[in-house]
């Protein structure tokens, strides 16, 4: 998936002068430019950014009142930390544009983000995932049985979208079609609704870029590829597999970015 992060930087240094008149002007300047939420810690900035993106807010402002120079130098990494804080969020946007205005008192960052889905569509996904888990997942099931049931549901209800237009969990649930990214996003939501810890992996297969999942059962990680399980004869060719088994079938990924499945 092609994604972009764009930045426009504006630095405006305002040195406070010890006169009442200028102080009033400075305060007026701050009142004009400190719209949006204001934080003083980097962790809080990252948290607010992740919350706005999770809410699918298309345009928003965050102000940072800590060390402005250090913040500006690390802004790209701060943004990355925000969207990487949640696997589902990580794969849910296509473009992040931001402009930063640095003054003597703060750094004001205006964001515009393009997402795969709207907030209303995500509400639908959350509601539907919980309903499905409640209907087909039972308390006496083992973790493996839960994963198998959800793998089967996806295989039975989804059709692969060769146009690559349906790339999200909403399309998978509302229209019954998705590409590999949509499969992986939906399975991540279904696993979460069933109480299964999972991750989304982006890597390569011989046919090109690909996305699939990993699940944690009993403290160990396993690969589950819902897309290619759907395409396999028995539905389980890539079900609870190790790293070695996946690599032997042509899968590649950056190992350091994901847990080991041995």
Structure in words:
- With about 260 residues, the protein is an alpha/beta fold.
- It contains 11 helices and 11 strands.
- It has helices at about 20-35, 40-55, 70-75, 75-85, 85-90, 120-135, 145-155, 170-175, 180-195, 225-230, 245; strands at about 5-10, 35-40, 60-65, 95-100, 105-115, 160, 175-180, 200-205, 210-215, 220-225, 240.
- The strands form 3 sheets. It has a 5-stranded mixed beta sheet. Strands 8-9-10-11 form a 4-stranded antiparallel beta sheet.
- A hairpin with a 2-residue loop joins strand 9 (about 210-215) and strand 10.
- Helix 7 (about 145-155) runs antiparallel to helix 9 (about 180-195).
- The longest helix is centred in the middle third of the chain and has 18 residues, at about 120-135.
- The radius of gyration is 22 Å and the shape is elongated.
- The relative contact order is 0.11.
């Amino acid at each position: 998936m092609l994604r972009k992060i764009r930045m426009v930087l504006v630095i405006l240094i305002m040195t406070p002068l010890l006169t009442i008149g200028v102080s009033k002007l400075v305060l007026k300047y701050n009142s004009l430019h400190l719209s949006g939420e204001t934080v003083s810690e980097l962790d809080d900035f990252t948290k607010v950014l992740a919350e706005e993106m999770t809410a699918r807010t298309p345009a928003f402002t965050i102000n940072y009142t800590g060390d402005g120079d250090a913040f500006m130098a690390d802004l790209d990494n701060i943004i990355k930390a925000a969207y990487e804080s949640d696997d589902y969020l990580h794969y849910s946007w296509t473009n992040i544009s931001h402009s930063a205005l640095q003054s003597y008192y703060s750094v004001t960052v205006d964001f515009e983000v393009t997402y795969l889905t709207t907030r209303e569509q995500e509400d639908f996904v959350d509601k539907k995932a919980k309903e499905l888990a409640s209907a087909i997942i039972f308390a006496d099931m083992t973790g493996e049985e839960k994963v198998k049931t959800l793998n089967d549901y996806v295989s039975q209800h989804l059709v692969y979208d060769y146009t690559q237009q349906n790339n999200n969990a909403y399309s998978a649930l509302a229209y019954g079609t998705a590409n590999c990214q949509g499969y992986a996003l939906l399975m991540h939501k279904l696993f979460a609704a069933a109480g299964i810890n999972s991750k989304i992996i982006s890597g390569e297969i011989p046919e090109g870029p690909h996305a699939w999942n990993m699940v944690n059962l009993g403290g160990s990680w396993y690969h589950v590829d819902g897309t290619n399980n759907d395409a396999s004869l028995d539905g389980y060719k890539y079900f609870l597999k190790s790293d070695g088994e996946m690599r032997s079938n042509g899968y590649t990924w950056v190992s350091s970015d994901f847990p080991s499945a041995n």
